[in-house]
Amino acid sequence: MPNNHYNPDDPTAPARPHSSPPPQPPPQGHAPQGKLVLGGFQNQPAPSQRRPYQNPAPSHQPPVSPPRQQHAAPPWQQQAPMAPPRYNNYQAGQMSAKPPVTRKRRGKGCLITTIVVLVLACVVGSFTVTTTQRVLAFGTKISTQQPLSTQTNYMNISDRTNMIVIGYGGGTHDGANLTDSLLVASVLPQSHHTTLVSIPRDLLVSVPGAPGGVGKINSLYEYTSSFGKNPTAGANAVAAKASKITGLDVKYWMMIDFTGFRDLIDALGGVDVYVPDSFNACYPKNDDAAKDASWIKVQFNKGNQHMDGATAISYARAREPLEVCGKGTSQNLAELTDFGRSARQQIIVKSVLAKVKQVSTWPKFFDAMTALEKTIRTNLSLADLSQFALKMDMNDPKTSRIGLSNQNVLVDDDNFNLVPRNNDWNVVSSYVQQKLYN
To answer: Does the CA dihedral 374-375-376-379 come out positive or negative?
Structure first.
């Protein structure tokens, strides 16, 4: 096939490969010169046929000196006539032949290269071991299960898997163990179909230990965990209650306090959030009113925003109108309902998951683990929890986002608590079943 791109006047073009007689051996005492040119190695042109810049040659050949007169070798050297002469095998007035290039020098270079590779392998291996140990230690701290164990066959199942994410204030102040956010994540592992169900904090349910045995669902963890002393018992009780409300088999749970969630977002370098509707609200300056009971005004405008941890938490939790704290007139009260808050919390969860899955975020995982290991607890192993997060697909436009509120299956009672319509819990579970992404 002709080479239509070959230009003989182009000094940067490779030489055109062509047939030629075998190259003549170089003159005695001179090694062949040249470098590799483009094309198959079978068709490389002979050195004498390459262009000057490809095979520079001296303008003249230096004269070849006649060989020195050699004396007869001693008898002990005649036993191995093919062995190369050594540097120390000469007598007065007699110079031994120039020793050929031996493999000793190349062997030294290969040895150095080998050592460098081994050192690099040890460094990488040490880093891998250190990383593995760090991750396993993290998994041991946050879970009731061994880090590499599995209860879900590592999410290689076809059954729907459900987990409730329990967000609470944390700390030592009053209300530190009230759950401000309850979000059930339901995933079909094989198809990645994801459903999110937000349960409002003001939903009235039976609460063992509460006065009259009834209370808002946000107090369920507080009582069943003995005010945070037994977090596993409290989380199990919340998961069981979520099963009865939604009709889903919620076996798994993950708890996180808002301080840890804020620190996680900061460790990841913030999150990118699209705010669908503008609104403002009153927000407590400090979760512990005993330290500071004042309020601040928060304003969120429609559009893309980059949020740090504190901003993201206030966006997810804000619920008080400006009139409550005397900061002005509220804008878009619909955002301050439980339905609005649930939708915002789902937006933040989606943004955090998206950030975690970005390759650029991976070097920050050590900082993220440090932020989380004191504030997150789960009954899934680290391996299962990781697989659960990877199976979730929050970007699928068909992902179902269900917010239980007085806009669909709940109503307000006389004390502004939420209860099922006609006090029929089957209405709630049937609604959830209809909205699942199957």
So the answer is: positive
User: Cα separations (Å) of 350 from 91, 109, 165, 260, 402?
Assistant: 86, 54, 13, 17, 14
**Residue in the block written with tokens 């929890």:** 385
Provide the β-strand partners of residue 126: none
Q: State the DSSP H helix or E strand holding residue 78, giving kind and residue range, or none if neither.
A: helix 75-78
Nearest in space to 221 (alpha carbons), one of 257, 171, 261, 168: 168
Proportion of the chain in helix, strand, coil states, percent, rounded to 5: 35, 15, 45
Q: Does 313 or 356 have the greater pLDDT score?
A: 313
Question: What token pair was written down for 33?
Answer: 């010169």
What are the pLDDT digits (tens) for 159-185?
Answer: 999 999 998 888 776 788 999 889 999
- For 65-119, how does the pLDDT look when each residue is reduced to its tens digit (9 = 90+)? 555 555 555 544 455 455 454 444 444 444 444 555 444 444 445 566 556 566 5
Rounded to whole angstroms, the Cα distance separating 388 from 396 reads 16
Nearest alpha-carbon partner for 279 in 347, 341, 198, 200? 341
